[in-house]
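Thread title: Can someone regenerate the structure for this chain?

I was given the following input by a collaborator and told the matching structure tokens would be attached. They weren't. Posting the sequence so someone can regenerate them.
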Amino acid sequence: MTLISPVPTAAVKSLPSAEQVVQRLRLVSGLILFAYVVTHFCNHIAGLSSLQAMNEARDIFQAIWWWPPMNVALTVSIAVHLGLALWSIYRRRTLRLRRWELAQLLLGLFIPFQLIEHVVGTRIAMSIYDINVNYDYVLLSLFADPVRPWLHTAMLSAAWLHGCIGIHYWLRIRPWYGKLFPVLQAAALIMPILVTIAFFQNGREVKVMLEHDAAWRQATFAAMRLPSDAQAAVRNLESIRDNLRMGLAGVLALTLLARQARVGLARRRSLIRIRYPGNLVVPAAKGANLLEVSRSANIPHAAVCGGRGRCSTCRVRIGKGVESLSPAQADELKVLARISAPPNVRLACQTIPSGDVEVSPVLPANVMPTATHSMASSGAGREIEIGVLFADLRGFTTMSEQRLPYDVVFILNRYFNEMGSAIEQAGGHVLQFTGDGIMALFGVDLDDPQETAIRSLNAARAMLERLKVLNADLAHDLPSPLRMGIGIHQGLCIVGDMGYGTAYGLSAVGDTVNTASRLEGLTKDYSACLVFSQAVAARSGVDTSGLRHDAITPRGRKTELGIHIVDTIEKLPATGR
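Best answer:
Regenerated them for you:
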């Protein structure tokens, strides 16, 4: 039985599901709100120059966000984002969240409670009493109480942090995000610091001027157009604030009660069984997706994107119960196609079982975000013909025992930098650095055995040439030149993403890997710089007539393997490319 079949283009372009619409609304409304926060922060930062600059920047800020289309977009975004947050709480089958999800949820709930006071004191006060709400008014209102400036700062920081968390977990699966992350992280740290400095600097300034500058005080209060009965206005605004907060708290409480009632009803309905590896069986109510089932049972389960169907890290291999799964929708099919998933693999966050099912998470629970970058066809698990290269420094262990640790690390880093660059420029993929050894793969993304062999030999030549240059650069630091042995073999391997946690990534297993490692070890016996197999020679088409030849019987094999021995780089035959 096939779980996933090719989907016609028309099907992929069909109307999005309700869940997809919710996700897109959350993203769009969140981006609009974050844009508002960014411009508001820039307005505050102008206060580092002066209070006048702060008020002048406010005119630009208001021109943008009080323009009717932008004002409508902002108001709708606030309502949509808050509504979706409450809907998300209601829909959750478990409140067991990851730390970043819990932090984002709590920050998101804190913001509107504190924002109500700010909105009532500005927008609503302006609407009811026609007050001129400039920064003089806002700062005087806040700094009249010793606690309110800190609560306001906490709200600004919470809004900023909430937005930054959302954007980070939206973008972190993008391959280019890692390069920009240091810059964005620095901006995320600097912005609230500058805003806080400007806020308290100007707050102290207005307090001083209020107490010591009678002319400024008279002009400022006249410009504010405060109501004649200011105390009555304050009491009215505080009443509005309290009622709004109580209303919001009531809505949140009703949401939690409704969620509890829904979960209770679901539990009383017929349960299904989800069987995990280790013969662990978890009862679950119908309607929950597989990721929610894992979290409700406190079973570690990878989900880099938070269960939004973007990263593929929550994918599971399905055993029995295929027929009871919800069909894959267009977005899930796109992700599964991107990673070349086999028919019995589904995204846990998008798959809802209606009956008993056996599942096995494919990736470790603590998989890193960078693992999603390699999950193309090369990382999904397949048997292909590749070239495998092993390289090792000769006598470096003995040399390192006679040198300071700093010197050893310095030399190895120079060596790895040169060799890694040589391999990548030749079209190879550096798999690992172990001690002073290197393993690299060639042809992972190719279907051309000849080009694979040529690239591996070109890499060996480039590595040996760079080693000569490196020895010349380090002549004063080394008692003797560095020597290297390289072994190359080509054949069928099982290639895919393997490992655990930070050590998760592309790897290869099979007889070809073991043979390449054996050839690298033979360079010691032959006092050679390179040993490559007849398979590499045949596929590359190089002239091996000027080389030494031999034959070995690799461990576990009955047939001999022809090998070619290169004593010096000058004897390495040219590939023609």
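The first helix runs from residue 9 to 12.
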